[in-house]
Amino acid sequence: MASTNANIWGLQDPSLIKDQSYIDGKWVSAKEGGTILVTNPATDEELGTVPEMGLEDAKSAIAAAGKAFASWGKTTARHRHDILMKFYSLMQEHNDDLARIITLENGKTLTEAKGENAYSASFMEWYAEEAVRTYGEQIPSPFTNIRNVVIKQPVGVVAIFTPWNFPSAMITRKLGAALAAGCTAVIKPPPETPFSALALAELSRRAGVPDGVINIVTTQKNVIEVGREMCESKTVRKVSFTGSTPVAKGLYGMAASTLKKVSIEAGGNAPFIVFDDADIDQAVEGAIACKFRGSGQTCVCANRIYVQSSVYADFASKLAEKVTAFKVGNGLDATTTHGPLIHEKAISKVTRHVEDAVSRGAQVLVGGKRVDGVGAFFTPTVLSEVPAGALFNVEETFGPVAALTKFETEEEVIALANDADVGLAGYFFSRDVGRVWRVAEALEVGMVGTNTGLISHATIPFGGVKESGIGREGSHGIEEYLNQKLIAFGGI
């Protein structure tokens, strides 16, 4: 069933737009009949509605996943490989449409959206190949009549919670691993960007994923009861979440009721350090790629930018010059470099951070305010002389603001960088090989970018330390969806 506003999507394949959730291979409305309104953050235009699903809907989805696991979990790795590769091919084939959906509901530029779809599809390809590499092992026995063999088996039903900043990629990074391992899934996408999730469900059907293996539950008002059921149900054997640290802690506590396996990628507050021996032009380009991608709405984007005093003025002026040239606007406009923030709450948080820094003596070099008119736009901003105690250095901003803080010594900046409860990603620029090793090892984060502002792709282990999460996605992340089983063969 197509969305009532399908004409505004402008897709080559309008059937990718669904205004119903997906349970047990069927497109369904909420049992209680409620809906969620989805709007374009660039225009405030209504895109359509999706179901406001509740507890009973969630139970139906979990039951469907449990039933489907009985057969899907027994399929061969080669069979799952072939289906995932078909899924990957369909995502490539529909790249333009999938990107357009991302842009319309999330706001990021079409160029970035196409990049996200490519990134998203890469997880399907990677995990298709991982499916056939889930090797077991034989462990030598101390006894002559015993042979120890370890095999790997799928965990079972997986509950997946994803954020709005990467509406497609945060699903496939989890779902690809789950499907490859032989698990089934219940997915709760964010209410801001549900259409990307539903389009993926449609492509999964075309790829040959059986009924019940993938289920989508859309909800907004009922998120607490739905989330609790997805975490506490005994049918669900694993929870995977990407989002804020406070929500992560709540879900983690719920999942503990049945000692489920848990993977969490929570909040970040990434330090970005420029040392005096860095290539300043390279550091500026790295900061732009890292800080302003997605209008600053990524969990691994630079949030605290520390620049050594001797190169501070040079870095600040060059960064400000680059940012001045940005064009904010509708992501569908080919001349737009940066789209809107996701909603008014995001605008309010960024505004609060800027006002706090200015009240503490920071100087606005570029931007510093929201854009008047329709849409949730905030001007790309560079702030100079931001004190270490400013909110930028305490909270994750999630907006297009580069807040620059001056430092003097390597020891000082490492202490500043590590002064956070979270530790997802960190970045620094230096041409001293000794310093590169020292700082990379000293930063208390799960991922370090050295002389680069971009670190994410399917083949690397993605995740953090401290309160940024548990477990890793990408790379060998399929292991998070598998149990090891020992089989001791006796009587030999």
TrEMBL record:
Active site residues according to the UniProt entry: 265
NCBIfam families: SSADH
Biological process annotations from GO: gamma-aminobutyric acid catabolic process
Record flagged with keyword Membrane: no
Phosphoprotein is among the record's keywords: no
The family this protein is said to belong to: Belongs to the aldehyde dehydrogenase family.
Gene3D superfamilies the record matches: Aldehyde Dehydrogenase, Chain A, domain 1, Aldehyde Dehydrogenase, Chain A, domain 2
Substrates-to-products reaction catalysed: succinate semialdehyde + NADP(+) + H2O = succinate + NADPH + 2 H(+); succinate semialdehyde + NAD(+) + H2O = succinate + NADH + 2 H(+)
One GO MF term: succinate-semialdehyde dehydrogenase (NADP+) activity
Higher taxonomy: Eukaryota, Fungi, Dikarya, Basidiomycota, Agaricomycotina
Uppermost EC category: oxidoreductase
Gene Ontology cellular-component annotations: cytoplasm
Name this protein carries in UniProt: Succinate-semialdehyde dehydrogenase
Ranges of residues in domain Aldehyde dehydrogenase: 27-486
Pathway: Amino-acid degradation; 4-aminobutanoate degradation
UniProt KW keywords: Oxidoreductase
UniProt EC number: 1.2.1.16
